[in-house]
Design goal:
GO terms for molecular function: endonuclease activity; nucleic acid binding; zinc ion binding. By secondary structure, the chain is of the alpha+beta class. It contains two helices and two strands. The chain is flat and about 25 Å long.
Length: 46
């Protein structure tokens, strides 16, 4: 079940990418955490 909203392309502070609806997808928490860790070393480190 999807529980988290994920940025398909990391926004890295870019407000346009952050709010772009086309850059969002729903993921389960486990998948979101794994994707985040792969992309920036873990939650809050990017």
């Amino acid at each position: 079940m999807a529980t988290d909203v994920d940025h398909i392309e990391p926004h890295k502070g870019d407000k346009g990418k952050f709010w772009a609806l086309g850059n969002l997808q729903a993921l389960c928490h486990r998948c979101h955490s794994a994707k985040t860790a792969r992309e920036d070393g873990g939650f809050g480190n990017g």
